[in-house]
Design goal:
This protein has a single domain, classed as Amidase signature (AS) enzymes (Alpha-Beta Complex), CATH 3.90.1300.10. The chain is globular, with a radius of gyration of 21 Å. The protein is built from 15 helices and 17 strands. The chain is about 40% helix and about 15% strand. The two termini are about 15 Å apart.
Length: about 475
């Protein structure tokens, strides 16, 4: 088995090979670094590598296997498996830039909650992946490192803000990555790189650790990005659970995301929509929605057009909440280090400073209306499917100004075409996944968004697993791999 074949195996299979003695964690980690050496010069997915620390962790993982009387039962769900970590997550003893020049040489003295739980899962961190500054753009570029290229076409963006994470998985450098998603930042790069990922219900996966001044978390979640649905389900399980340091963290037991994963969609009621009335989509993307709805119907689901059109475009109030919170979190940096910050961060803070308290209050009210509308929808339906994005990956920093014959704006580095249907479910808090469902006329991947009721990640994952089995995608590799 060559390095590419090895690194594109499911992470759970890699783990089984390690604990079963078929391969050592050191051999897996060395294979990951050889893959990084082979392709990342073209992609710039990684901003920081940790070869010494990763090999030490791999050796410790191998020692744990040797010392255990029941390694398969006792060791973590990704024991010894290489993983990449988005550079918005703090890593103790390993450089964490947050994509910002101000923190270019920062080495934290503690881990974020996500990284704590990644380590507990047994996974071995090989490095940190590229992100826009503070996750503030739909492309992964900043003043610290080079922009991440898309492995399907290096002239195009890998998306953001988890673009480096997506490229690291899509090109076969690791089987699992972590990302974060405040407006689509897991789902957009998953769609544009042809991989799978989920944004869980707000608070399902706790977030703690960073430099921002206090602001309520009304939009953002960390989450896994993988080639296979099962890997995402396992890592979602590992990352979930209440965290006292995160005030938005959900209380109560974590559902079992694995027990029903293979149960299929027979009997599910699924609604489809091209855009919820929010934005036109490219024709190839529209067609994949129709094709995917038909596929779910063939799998036994009750599929119909969703009786849902959102009363107020969510972007307007998501934007007000997002930019208002930007001022709370990073306004001091705009005042003290403006020249070091990216223009999109400055522009977001300037937009936030124009908001009144009444503007912010109206945005919160509109978000409540959205949650009410979606709650009524999910009283009748199990799932909602629609495009992840209205457009495919475009040339770097050149988003289309016209989509399907209509003008499309760009707001502080975010093309509206990238996020019309993703950010709605950040502000509504619903779980939403993106899975690969086809390619456009230029050979760029297209993602389908699968949305579930609040706290019902299990149904989302189950439906995606059924689709994956019916229409496998993991064997499709990009040119840079």
């Amino acid at each position: 088995m060559n390095d590419l074949e090895l690194m594109t195996l499911p992470g759970w299979k890699q783990r089984d090979m390690v604990v079963g003695g078929e391969i050592s964690s050191r051999e897996l980690v060395e294979a990951s670094f050889r893959r990084i050496d082979a392709v990342d010069g073209q992609l710039h997915a990684f901003i920081t590598l940790d070869k010494h620390g990763a090999l030490e962790a791999a050796d410790a993982a191998d020692a744990a296997v040797a010392a255990s009387s029941d390694p398969a039962g006792e060791l973590g769900p990704f024991h010894g498996v290489p993983i990449s970590i988005k550079d918005l997550e703090l890593t103790k003893g390993l450089r964490t830039t947050l994509g910002c020049k101000v923190y270019e040489e920062w080495v934290p003295d503690y881990d974020s909650t996500v990284v704590e739980r990644v380590r507990k899962s047994g996974a071995v961190i090989v490095g940190k992946t590229q992100t826009p500054e503070f996750g503030n753009a739909a492309e992964s570029y900043n003043k610290v490192g080079e922009a991440t290229n898309n492995p399907w076409n290096v002239e195009r963006t890998a998306g953001g803000s988890s673009g480096g994470a997506a490229a690291s998985v899509a090109a076969g450098m690791v089987s699992i990555a972590t990302g974060t998603d405040g407006g689509g930042s897991v789902r957009i790069p998953c769609a544009w790189n042809g991989i799978f990922g989920i944004k869980a219900t707000l608070g399902r996966i706790p977030r703690f650790g960073g430099v921002a001044n206090p602001a309520p978390n009304q939009t953002s979640s960390s989450g896994p990005m993988t080639r296979y649905v099962k890997d995402t389900a396992i890592m979602t399980q590992a990352l979930s659970g209440h965290e006292v340091r995160d005030t938005s963290s959900l209380r109560g037991p974590v559902p079992d995301f694995l027990s029903g994963l293979g149960d299929g969609v027979k009997g599910m009621k699924i609604g489809w929509s091209i855009n919820l009335g929010l934005s036109p989509a490219e024709k190839d993307i529209e067609q994949t929605v129709y094709d995917s709805a038909l596929a779910f119907k063939e799998l036994g689901a009750d599929v119909s057009e969703a009786p849902l059109e959102l009363k107020v475009p969510p972007f307007s109030y998501w934007w007000d909440v997002w930019t208002g919170n930007q001022v709370a979190m990073y306004g001091d940096l705009v005042d003290s280090n403006r020249e070091d910050l990216m223009p999109y961060t400055v522009a977001m803070n300037e937009a936030g400073r124009l908001l009144t308290a009444a503007d912010y209050a109206r945005a919160l009210k509109n978000a409540e209306v959205l949650r009410s509308d979606l709650a009524a929808y999910f009283d009748e339906y199990d799932l909602l499917i629609l495009p992840t994005t209205a457009i495919s990956a475009y040339p770097h920093q050149s988003p289309p100004s016209v989509i399907a014959g209509q003008e499309s704006e760009t707001f502080a580095g975010i093309s509206y075409g990238a996020i019309p249907t993703t950010m709605a479910f950040n502000i509504s808090w619903n779980p939403a996944a993106s899975m690969p469902v086809g390619f456009d006329g230029d050979g760029m991947p297209i993602g389908l968004q699968v949305v579930g009721n609040l706290q019902d990640e299990a149904t989302v994952l189950r439906a995606c697993a059924a689709f994956e089995q019916a229409r496998p995608w993991a064997e499709k590799m990009p040119p840079v791999s």
